[in-house]
Amino acid sequence: MADRERRMTPPYGGVFVARTTILDSSGVHRALTRVSHEIIERNEGLDNVLVVGLQTGGVQIALRIVRLLFEIDGTDVPFGTLDVAMHRDDIGLRPVMAEAVTDIPFDLDGMTVVLVDDVLYTGRTIRAALDALNDFGRPRAVQLAVVIDRGHRELPIRPDFVGKNLPTSREEMVDVTLEGVLLGEMRK
Amino acid sequence: MSVHLLTLGELDTQGISELLSLTDRFVEVGRRPIPRVPALRGRTVATLFFEESTRTRLAFETAAKRLSADVLNFSAASSSLAKGESLRDTFETVQAMGIHAAVVRHRSAGVPAQIARWADDGVSILNGGDGWHAHPTQGLQDAYTLWRHFSPMPHGQPGAEAADEPTLAGLRIGIVGDIVHSRVARSDIEAYTALGAGIVLVAPPTLLPAQPRDWIDCWLPADAAKRVEISHGLDDVLDELDVVGLLRCQRERMADGLIGSVPEYVARYGLTAERAQRLRPDAVITHPGPMNRGIEIAGAVFEDLAANRVLVTQQVSHGVAARMAVLFRLIGSGTALPSADGPPDAAPSEAGPAGGGGA
Amino acid sequence: MAEQQLPAAGEMLVLAGGEIVERTGRRHADITVLDGQIAAVDPPGTNRNGSAHVVDASGRVVAAGLVDLFSRLGEPGNEEAETVATATAAAALGGFTAVLAQPDTDPPLDRLGQLAELRRNATGRHCAVIAAATITADRAGKRLSPMAELADAGVRWFTDVGPLADIGLLRRALQYAGPLSGTVSVRPATAHLGGTAAMAEGAVSARMGLAGEPAASEELSASAAIGVARLTGGRLHLDRISAARTVELVRAAKAEGIDVSASVAAEHLLFVDADADSYDTLMRAEPPYRTALDRAALIAGVNDRTIDAVVSGHSPVPPQAKDLPFDEAPPGVAALETCAALVLGHPDISVETALDALAWRPAELASATQLGGGAIEPGQPANLVVFDLDRPWTLAERGSVSMARNTPHRGRELGAMAMATVVAGHLVAADGALCGTAGTVAALFAGNTR
C-alpha cells in the first residue's frame, strides 16, 4: 500500500496488519494481463488510447499495464500520472498531502483515457480524478481500470476493467502492490 | 505549530522544504490548459493591504483564485482607517465577514504579528510584507526559483521526486544593496540559509544594520549564522558568487544621506557591464522588482544576459505557485505547518472515517 | 471595588504591630496618627484609646509614603486616558502619597494660570500632587518659561519631559533656576541619533526590522547635560535613564561633585529589548528597553545609589492607542499601581534600597518631605504606607482604578502589595481598595497639595 494511503487512513499514523493474502504476485500479473487484453478488445486496438495512473497507488499498476499493452499489441501507449489531492471533496476533513506529481504531457482532446487505480472503494477519488481531467482537455471517453473492487460505493461510479471483485467490510483495508493483494486492517 | 505565516524563521527547514515541494505541484497546475483546482472552494481569502502593492496583491489574488477561493480585497485607501478607526477595528470588521485567511501588508513592521493575535481560531494570517521586517512569500518564491534553476524538476520519472529534496547547499549567494531597509533581504536570508546556502551580504555600512554580525548571530540558528558573511565591496566577492541577488535601491535613501550619490553607489554596488563580464559563467541574477535599470543593474546587462541568467520573470511566475502552496497548506490541508517550536500534528481531531484503501 | 469605612475626622488612627523601616534602621512600633500628624510612636502593644481605628500591620513593613517623580496625570488634554482623580487614586493604591505631575499636558503647564488649575483639580484627591512646570514656553524648546514666577508660586521642578535639543538653552535654564532652588530635569536623547525610535538599536531591532535608538543617543545627550551642569553649577536631574554608559556618566559626575541626580523607570529594571519581540505595543517604552547588560547596570546603579530614584513613568494612553502598529503606538506604561510592588519585589534590590529610591530620596529631590518620604516621628506629617512583602497578587484579580489599561502586568504575579496608604493622616487605601470617594476625602485634604 502506498505510504500516502497509510498516512491518510484512520487511525492516522497506524500500521497495516495483513490477515489474508488475496492474490500473490503471479495472481496480480495474471489479472493485469487479462485487464490489458480487455482494454485492447474494448477499444478495438490502442489508437488514441492513453493510460493515466492515479497517485500514488495506481501509478505502478498503470506502468505495468503500459508494459503489458506493449508486449501484447506492440503499441507504446502514452502514460501520465494524476494527483487528485487538490480536487478531493473531503479537504479539511482529513489531512491532505498534495505531494505527488501530476504529469500529463499531452492534450486529452478526443482521446480515450484509461484511468488506473489500485482499489475502487467509495468512488470519491475517481470523482475527483474526472474533475481534474477536465482541466486538461475534453477526452472522447474515460474508462476505469482497477485491481480490486471492494464495494461500498458512495457515488454512481462503476469500473470498466476489474482485476478482482472482493467483498469487504468498511473496517477492513486492502493493500495492493505488484507483489500481491493483502486483506487486513489498520491498527494504532 | 503555526496556522499563520509571519516569517520564514518561525518554520524549520522541514517546513520551508515542504512548502517548496508543494510549490512544484502548483507550478504544474499553472501549466495546465485550465490552471485552476477546486482545493479551496468555499474558502474566503481577504487581502488587507494597508500599503499599496499591486504586484504582491495580484500574486496573492491570482493564487487564491487558482485554488477556487473567494477573494475579498481591502485597501487602506478605501477604508475608514483615515477616519480614526484602529488597526484592530479594521481587521475585526473584515474578519466578521467570514474569512479563512487574511494576507496583511503594512508599512510598519510587526502588524501581521499583531493581527494574528486578534484573529479568531480558524483564521490564518499571511504576512504579505511588513515594514523592513519580513516578506516570507517573496523569500519562498526566490528560494524556489533558485532551487529549480540549479536542480530542475525531474520530468516523467515516477518516483524520482522522492529524492528531490529542496536544497541550495553548495551555492554562494550575494545579497547586494539596501539590506537594512529590506524585508525581502531578511526573508531571503532565512530561506536561503535554511536550505544550506552560503550568503554574502554586500552593502555599504549605512545600508546594513549597525552591528551586522550581532544581528546575524542573534537572529539565525548558529549553523545558519556561520554561513553568512558581510562585505562592503561587490568586487571583492563577485567572482565567487553563484547568485547575485540585487535589491531595489530606493531613491529616498539618497535623500536620507545614506549614500553619497547614485554614481558612487553604481560604481561600488551596481551590476555594471564590466562586472557582468566577470560573473561566473553559470551565475544568475535575481531582483524582487521593480528594477531601477541604470542603478542596481545596467540596462545593457539586463538586455544582454541570456534569459536563463536573469531570473526576474521566473521569480514572478513562481510567486503565484509559492503563494498557492502557502494558502493550500495553511487553510486547505487540514494540518498546521511544522514550525521551529514543535512537531507537526498527525491529524485534525475532527477527522471522520473517509475512503481508505484507494477510491 | 468595595469601599472601606473611612475613619471619621478627628478619629485616631493606629498602624499597629508593623516593622518600621527608615534610613536610620528598623524597629517594631505602633504609630498613632491624629489630626494629620504622627501623634506617637510607641512600643508594639501599647494600650490605646479604644475608639481608635486600627490597621493591623503585623508581619508587614511600615514606611514613609512613596513619592513618584514621574507621573502623567492625563489632564488637561488626555482625559480619554486618565484624569487627576483616577491617577491619584491609582497612586494611593500603589503606595504613593505624592506624585510629581509632568507638565507635558495639552496645553503644557508653563504659566501660573495652568498651575492654579492643576492645584484646584488636585485638591481633595487620594494623594498629593506636586506640580512641575516646563522649562520652555509652550514646551516648544525655544525660550524659557516664566520660571521665576512659577518658582515664586512654589514650583521647584522644571522639565520639558524629554530631551532639550538646544544645549545653550539648557545652560540658561540651569543658570536661571539656580537662585530659584529649582531642579532642571531632562530625559537624555539625541534626535539625530534616532532619539524618537520605537526600539533600542541593536540585534533585536535589526531582526524586527525597526529603526532603533542607539545607547549613544542617550549617552551623548547626558554627557552634554552634565557638561553644562558643571559649567553652571545648576541642579540637573537626568530623567528615566536606560543605558549602562549613562549610569557610568552619572556615577563619575557625582564623584566629581556635580549636582546631578538620576532616575530610572521601574519597568527598565525588569524588561529588555527582546521582550518586544512579538511586537507587543505594551513593550514599547520611553526610553526603549535595552539589553540585559544595560538592565544589569541600571540595577547596579540603583543599588549603589548612583541612580537616585525609581519612578513609575506612569503614561496612560487610551485603549485603542495600543492597537496601533508598534512604531506608531505611543510608548509607556500605566504604572502607578504596580511600580512599588515591582521594585519592592525585585529579587536584586533590598527593601532599604527600594524605599530610598521610591520614597526618601525622591522626597528630598522634589523638596517634598512634608508629603512623603519623611521621618516617622511624633509631630511629622502622617504620610505612611504599609507593605506586605510576601503577598502575591495580580492586577487582573485585584482590579484597577486607573482608567488606563496599558500595562504589561495585568496577569503577571507581583510579589509585594501596598496594604494601607495614609495621606496627611487619612487612610486613603486599605487592603487593595480605596477608602472613601474623592468627595468625602476632599474636606480632609485642604492645604495638602502644593
Descriptive key words:
heterotrimer; A: 188 residues; alpha/beta; Rossmann fold; 5-stranded parallel sheet; 3-stranded antiparallel sheet; 8 strands; 28% helix; B: 359 residues; 2 domains; 14 helices; 9 strands; disordered C terminus
Compact summary:
Chain A has helices at residues 3-8, 25-42, 57-73, 124-134, and strands at residues 15-24, 49-54, 79-82, 112-120, 141-149, 161-165, 173-177, 180-187.
The rounded Rg of chain B comes to 21 Å
Low-confidence stretches of chain B: 342-359
Count up the domains of chain A. Answer: 1
CATH architecture label of chain A: 3-Layer(aba) Sandwich
With helices defined by DSSP (H or I, 4 residues minimum), what is the helix count of chain A? 4
Indicate the percent of residues in helices of chain A.
25-40%
The arrangement of helices and strands of chain A along the chain is HEHEHEEHEEEE
CATH C-level label of the largest domain in chain B: Alpha Beta
Strand arrangement within the widest β-sheet of chain B reads 7-6-5-8-9
Low-confidence stretches of chain A: none
User: Could you give the order of strands across the largest sheet of chain A?
Assistant: 3-2-4-5-6
Q: Which structural category fits the helices and strands of chain B?
A: alpha/beta
What does this 3D model show about the protein?
- The complex is a heterotrimer of chains A (188), B (359) and C (450).
- Chain A is of the alpha/beta class and 188 residues long.
- Chain A has a single domain, classed as Rossmann fold (3-Layer(aba) Sandwich).
- Chain A is built from four helices and eight strands, in the order αβαβαββαββββ.
- In chain A, strands 3-2-4-5-6 form a five-stranded parallel sheet.
- In chain A, helix 4 links the parallel strand 4 and strand 5.
- Chain B has 359 residues and is of the alpha/beta class.
- Chain B folds into two domains: 135 residues, Aspartate/ornithine carbamoyltransferase (Rossmann fold), CATH 3.40.50.1370; 168 residues, Rossmann fold.
- A five-stranded parallel sheet of chain B has the order 7-6-5-8-9. In chain B, strands 2-1-3-4 form a four-stranded parallel sheet, sandwiched between helices.
- Chain B is globular, with a radius of gyration of 21 Å.
- Chain C is α/β, with parallel strands linked by helices.
- Chain C folds into two domains: 119 residues, Urease, subunit C, domain 1, CATH 2.30.40.10; 301 residues, TIM Barrel (Alpha-Beta Barrel), CATH 3.20.20.
- Chain C is globular and about 65 Å long.
- Chains in contact: A-B, B-C.
- Chains B and C meet through helix 3, helix 4 and helix 7 of B and helix 5 of C.
